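User: Structure please.
Assistant: Input sequence and predicted structure:
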Amino acid sequence: MKSTIIADIGINHNGDIAIARRMIDAAAEAKADYVKFQTFVPEKLISVPILQHQEESGKTVNEDQLEILRRVALPEVDLFLLMDYCSSRGIGFMSSPFDDESIDLLQRFDINTWNIPSEQITDYPYLIKIAQTGKTVILSTGMSPLEEIGEAVSVLTTNGVSKENITLLHCSTEYPTPYNEVYLDTINRLSDIFGVKTGYSDRTEGIAIPIAAATLGAQIIEKNFTLDHNMEGLNHKFAIEPEELKQMVTSIRAVESAINYDSRQFFSKESTTRTATRKSIVAATSICKGELFSETNLTTKRPGIGISPMKWNEIIGKPANKDYKPDEMILL
């Protein structure tokens, strides 16, 4: 099974369409399947001032979240141009909507998959609006206990989305997530509990954990992505850079190739080595016709073109069917 790999740009374009295009270029060159943005109207998302703690240029900064979002929000025309640019680069376009107006906008873009962020999993009217489109849903589950996940799945399935069209992404919203708090086996647990496809959205440092997720059969693997860790903004510090993204995609594809082998091809390709290095039953001494084969007059030696040593007990005690010289293959 081949995982769908999403390079999660989010707001790491810093509101600059030129940066966003460069990120699309890098993701396409890394052979990711999709890039993912965020679509929101800041005033539709925040009702009262919320201070956002972040590190910038080695300093701790507390800034109004509304102002941050205003600075990085992409207008409709930019989103359309970026979607078109993705098409020209042969990579899929996704964007997570955060409000009703953004759902309507992406609906006009005729996207075929909704990517619901963890923050929206308890937004009932939002889930209803998504579900009623009848399209495929990817639902991130960060911050949510099983009860909340189950409620969200129920809202989606009772309002137009079949379970076959839902993928739950196991994730943590802690940046970065410590390795011992990843609980990667939750990928399969979610599938067993809710009967849907599952994947993994990674917030750890480096690329080891997304690669491990591939070994567990994660059908979607999502990873935060930036051009440079040192860029100013909320999510750059712990995102991976272009070369890391390329290594991650290459490693995941290697893991998938190793898991999904064909056993017949496996043995066929090893046949030459198998013959040269395996052993056969041969005469240890001169053996006369009619003499009984024994542990004294038989031994095992390469190559493996005669009777397998696994037949040893079947040969011992039988009469020789002809005269044998030392090292001659036993033939019956």
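The chain has a mean pLDDT of 92.
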